């Protein structure tokens, strides 16, 4: 029990730092606590004070949402194909799906930068919002495939066979039986994709051009002193993520009891 408590304290120590230093009445840098005037609520009252902070947050949320949507749809389709169908190149596809996950991010980012600069500029696509989105969709798809595939492999095929025995056509079987059973895995994959996209810095830094995301804003701010408002935004995102996770768990438990 004590070991578990110590591990949790270790894991949540950075979160505690983020929360405490969001009330710091700092000067140029927010690394050291300033006793004079602290704690203060001024950073919470105006979290968009530092230029570019809220715009970078909006960019991260938009890219995360779009990347999650596209990657979840495409990744789920690939997972269903790999689990339910035999086709030429299935084994190679299973292997290739893991490559973006196994490739170091700095190598992946440099490779994508070369592709975008050497190829996409010919069609008028410059480094910025859309190149970040394309890159995030690419590496998120692999995580979606792995999560959804694991869920599909754990499902009992007899349930779908029973639906067919009760004269349900393939489309009805999919929407009434298969999809509800696979939904927890798809939801988990979507949440993971959004988290990876929102948090990514290395690949984003290579392909972002002049566009800024929240992690990139924090890194650039570090060079001149991280504002306390960044801690406000970071801790707020943490609280929102926890609330969404708890809400999802409660909904899942209620649905399980209903069944």
Automatic annotation (TrEMBL):
Regions that span the bilayer: 61-83, 95-121, 127-148, 177-198, 232-251
Chief location: membrane
Gene3D superfamilies, alphabetized: MetI-like (1.10.3720.10)
PROSITE patterns assigned to the protein according to its UniProt record, in alphabetical order: ABC_TM1 (PS50928)
Gene Ontology biological-process annotations: transmembrane transport
Domain ABC transmembrane type-1 span(s) in chain numbering: 57-248
Keywords assigned by UniProt, alphabetized: Cell membrane, Membrane, Transmembrane, Transmembrane helix, Transport
InterPro entries per UniProt: Bact_Polyamine_Transport, MetI-like, MetI-like_sf
Annotated Gene Ontology cellular component terms: plasma membrane
Localization (cell): Cell membrane
Membrane-topology descriptor: Multi-pass membrane protein
SUPFAM superfamilies (UniProt xref): MetI-like (SSF161098)
Pfam families for the chain: BPD_transp_1
UniProt similarity note: Belongs to the binding-protein-dependent transport system permease family. CysTW subfamily.
PANTHER family linked: PUTRESCINE TRANSPORT SYSTEM PERMEASE PROTEIN POTI
Protein name, UniProt field: ABC transporter permease
Native source species: Propioniciclava tarda
